[in-house]
């Protein structure tokens, strides 16, 4: 068991925002390389509306084409029951549902209110329970929203509590814009930890303002031991204008190693994957 798990989201969060339609074979090659680098979990794609995110339209083909070494679990995002059913058919090991801590981003990203999005999850959670598939719950814009401004920590805690009650095994407070300060992340986590213990939270920090490593450090102080990252630092969310990609996996791995934490990752393979990922950028 590594001290800290890096949850690789590059093939989904990293690639979803690329304008050039990346050939399916390139996505599969990236995932297959990442699968050899020591990750326990890789977010491979998303089963969302291709009208909303055209880059992810080949989700089923990606899942069908990857090679699955033992010990690696593949997670995919699902916005509704239809997406969940497609994910199950594609043999996803885990699915991610996503809600927002602000109404403005909820409307922009999934075209509904926060409460409607939580209701939409009910049949997904029920089906996942029956199928024995675990569900990760993302909460976006946990400190700042591009539409509604600063997010009060109490609003994040309310959505975290709802996702917990729905049955998410892990909840992922996300700095979608990548503009959070360590102080804001700390205040947000203080509120969230009243609802969910640290060992069931994962930090997901975009790196627009270059503070993601500091945000990871304050989260470690708060007890978190799982962090999302995207190889090559690719990506962003199409519905968060101006946001850069997730913090780069290789940067997080090097930072954690310098602090004495084992991530179980093969740094050479990781660097190869980062070169491949950067080459995919349009
Ligand atoms: P809608 O337009 O309100 O609803 O979209 P709809 O039901 O009318 O669907 C629109 C069209 O998509 C229809 O096609 C549906 O059939 C189809 P038409 O009838 O017009 O031909 N459709 C689907 N197709 C394939 N798979 C599906 C699916 N569902 C509907 N599952 C909806 C609502 C939620 C579907 C849409 O808004 C959507 O897909 N949004 C996803 C946006 C997205 O993927 N954003 C990025 C991921 S989240 C993220 O990046 C944040 C995260 O990284 C954390 C962070 O950093 O904050 C996780
Ligand atoms: Mg993200």
From TrEMBL:
A GO molecular function annotation here is:
metal ion binding
Is GTP-binding there in the keyword field? no
Is Magnesium tagged as a keyword?
no
* Residues of the Pyruvate carboxyltransferase domain: 4-271
Which biological process, per GO, is one annotated for this protein? ketone body biosynthetic process
Output the PROSITE patterns linked to this UniProt entry: PYR_CT
Top-level taxon in the UniProt lineage: Bacteria
Task: Could you list this entry's UniProt keywords, alphabetically sorted.
Answer: Lyase, Metal-binding
Give the protein family: Belongs to the HMG-CoA lyase family.
NCBIfam families to which the protein is assigned, alphabetical: PRK05692.1
Name under which the protein is recorded:
Hydroxymethylglutaryl-CoA lyase
